[in-house]
């Protein structure tokens, strides 16, 4: 059951806005940290060309059980990164199938801003998070961001809670962004376990990690082990399913059951990519199972859930100009994100039986429908949160 002071799915209003214009709305949100044109490039494997020497702001060397030292591209790039089809991917976890380069981090910047606007900040369970991070004499508050990517969420939390320590963990976090002094990034595969983090964090956050996780319920258990008693777990996952204007699954382009002009190429490409990811062993689709996953845990209390539909493209109209402006901001960000996302999926499909002409048809069709907006599309995001039972120092088994 969701606690009384938290958002429930029935009461959650992601698109409710006070009267203000776009500029003032964005000014209230945590600052996005986007590299300037002079920022050093993403470290490339040797075959991708020369790179300049740099170091990760802080690697596992700062952790209680250090296993990774400072990152030096000339030494470490070929071990941690690999180049394919003019994109860069992590080289340590074959399950995670999306790129790990600045083009991808730029896409994630837009997705991050969309989340900020959709839920009005960095996290949906505002009361629970602020309670967990409230100052306490002699206690160092800590925040863990798993699958940090470009680091925007971790950096935003570090800015909002300057007295807390924030650790962002990823297979290949961005090394071009300068975090505040209370934020550090680590190269790590959390799929191998995080025993060096057990019982150390007041907030654990994981967004869009299912692609790189084989068993999401086991992943939740590992997250809970990293929490202190009373700490807050925050989970966010999207669906690679496109919905129509009436929030029904959208027809796929090329499906003979529908008229030729009724199907979406974006929906088709995401459908094919999701199938490939699942066949490879990922946990895509886990967001739909949040309620079941958390409901089986006896060491979590005050769980809450929300489902947020976001329009793809600025086609949606609201009851007021303010709400329409809000839809426009989200729609434009989601349109840019979708254009980049289908290109991020290109290598995955080419490696799993799709021909270059097929993939290019998917991308070209997506570009057309995102440009003309004749198809009114939504995506959906699943949010879940819960608190670790304050009476339990260690996690108990799930209740079957």
UniProtKB/TrEMBL annotation:
Protein name in the entry: S-adenosyl-L-methionine-dependent methyltransferase
Region (Disordered): 34-68
Organism domain of life: Eukaryota
GO molecular function annotation: methyltransferase activity
Source species: Exidia glandulosa HHB12029
Bias-annotated ranges (Pro residues): 38-48
PANTHER family noted in UniProt: 2-METHOXY-6-POLYPRENYL-1,4-BENZOQUINOL METHYLASE, MITOCHONDRIAL, METHYLTRANSFERASE
Regions of compositional bias (Low complexity) in chain numbering: 57-68
GO biological process: methylation
CDD domains: AdoMet_MTases
Pfam families according to UniProt: Methyltransf_23
Classification via InterPro entries: SAM-dependent_MTases_sf
Keyword terms: Methyltransferase, Transferase
């Amino acid at each position: 059951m969701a606690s009384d002071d938290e958002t429930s799915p029935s009461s959650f209003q992601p698109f409710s806005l006070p009267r203000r214009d776009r500029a003032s709305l964005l000014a209230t949100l945590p600052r996005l940290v986007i590299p300037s044109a002079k920022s050093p490039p993403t470290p490339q494997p040797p075959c991708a060309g020369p790179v300049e020497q740099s170091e990760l702001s802080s690697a596992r060397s700062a952790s209680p059980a250090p296993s990774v030292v400072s990152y030096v591209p000339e030494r470490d790039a070929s071990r941690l990164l690999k180049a394919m089809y003019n994109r860069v991917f992590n080289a340590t976890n074959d399950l995670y199938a999306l790129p790990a380069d600045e083009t991808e981090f730029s896409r994630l910047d837009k997705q991050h801003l969309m989340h900020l606007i959709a839920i009005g900040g960095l996290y949906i369970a505002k009361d629970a998070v602020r309670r967990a991070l409230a100052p306490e004499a002699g206690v160092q508050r800590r925040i863990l961001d798993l699958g940090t990517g470009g680091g925007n969420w971790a950096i935003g939390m570090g800015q909002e809670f300057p007295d807390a320590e924030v650790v962002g963990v990823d297979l290949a976090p961005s090394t071009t962004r300068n975090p505040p002094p209370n934020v550090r990034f680590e190269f790590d595969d959390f799929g191998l376990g995080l025993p060096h983090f057990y019982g150390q964090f007041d907030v654990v956050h994981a967004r869009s990690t299912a692609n790189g996780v084989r068993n999401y319920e086991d992943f939740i258990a590992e997250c809970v082990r990293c929490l202190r008693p009373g700490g807050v777990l925050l989970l966010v996952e999207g669906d690679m399913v496109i919905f129509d204007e009436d929030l029904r699954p959208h027809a796929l382009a090329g499906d003979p059951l529908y008229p030729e002009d009724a199907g979406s190429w974006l929906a088709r490409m995401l459908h094919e990519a999701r199938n490939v990811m699942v066949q490879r062993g990922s946990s895509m689709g886990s967001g739909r199972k949040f309620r079941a996953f958390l409901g089986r845990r006896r060491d979590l209390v005050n769980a809450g859930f929300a489902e947020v539909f976001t329009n793809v493209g600025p086609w949606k109209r609201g009851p007021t100009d303010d709400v329409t402006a809000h839809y426009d901001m989200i729609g434009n960000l989601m349109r840019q994100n979708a254009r980049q996302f289908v290109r991020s999926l290109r290598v995955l499909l080419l490696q799993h039986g799709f021909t270059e002409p097929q993939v290019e048809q998917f991308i070209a069709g997506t570009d057309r429908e995102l440009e003309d907006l004749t198809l009114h599309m939504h995506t959906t995001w699943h949010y879940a949160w819960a608190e670790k039972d304050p009476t339990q120092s260690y996690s108990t088994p799930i209740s079957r």
